């Protein structure tokens, strides 16, 4: 007989291992990148912990690791049109095109995501046979580049634009039968009490009402979704930082504002209803809550990846310390160099992951 305690030794290989919960034999399906007893024992979407962390929700993965979407209405569609990506399930062989995708990295601008694709091509795959083509250019909305198992997609600015892209990407991964995909968001942000040029790996998202949730108005009511990111994945990405880096890396909360000016307590917008003292009091409060940076997508990204049972992480560089000012005045060349810092950390994680899995075929 086995009691209800969980006793797990982290595996020395990436094969599934078995644990016992309340007498039931279950398989852990975590594909560990790092083996360290100081990290969270399981990823949030591991089969052994899903029931506890997502009570009442159906497990979101099939036995082969592909995504199981909860919306049964999709089964009734003759063809599902991913309108904003310019793809559909009738005219495109999505498994052939995207079935090998393991990593999806999304970010604001088309230029930045092409640059990330180039960065991964040269730094992870050494530029071998990588021809960059915008796979969704005829949609006239988002840009998508594929480098081996890495998909790099622009999502625009703010939650509405980002969630439109992210939700269609989630459906794309489902139809493509991608196995255990991991989704990252890289971007820029304003820091709180940390030097400009620092990188923040997010632990959770905070909305404008200072709640760790993403609130969506749905047919006249508010749907609240928890905005918590995968703890182990965040820890692993944070561990990619090195003392040799020219910048500091922090692990903490991220506020996602719905507005760039008043929503982030700035004083330099066309409208302002608060004083400088109000601003500083608010920002200090955020800092005391564990918020390390402010951007415009975090709660929604955290909530939707969590709901889909997909491991998600946010890695952003800070362009300014908001406790010292509102305007980004650093010269453009320096800012462009800083924007490569989240790319380097995510690329390092991808490289480490592929090494742990004996490469990519």
From TrEMBL:
Residues in Nucleoside phosphorylase domain copies: 102-350
One Gene Ontology term from the biological process aspect of the record: uridine catabolic process
Any Pfam family hit: PNP_UDP_1
Binding-site residues, substrate: 264, 266
A GO MF term: uridine phosphorylase activity
Binding site for phosphate: 141, 185-188
GO cellular component, one term: cytosol
Family statement: Belongs to the PNP/UDP phosphorylase family.
Name of the featured protein: Nucleoside phosphorylase domain-containing protein
Organism: Bombyx mori
Biological classification of the source: Eukaryota, Metazoa, Ecdysozoa, Arthropoda, Hexapoda
Gene: 101744496
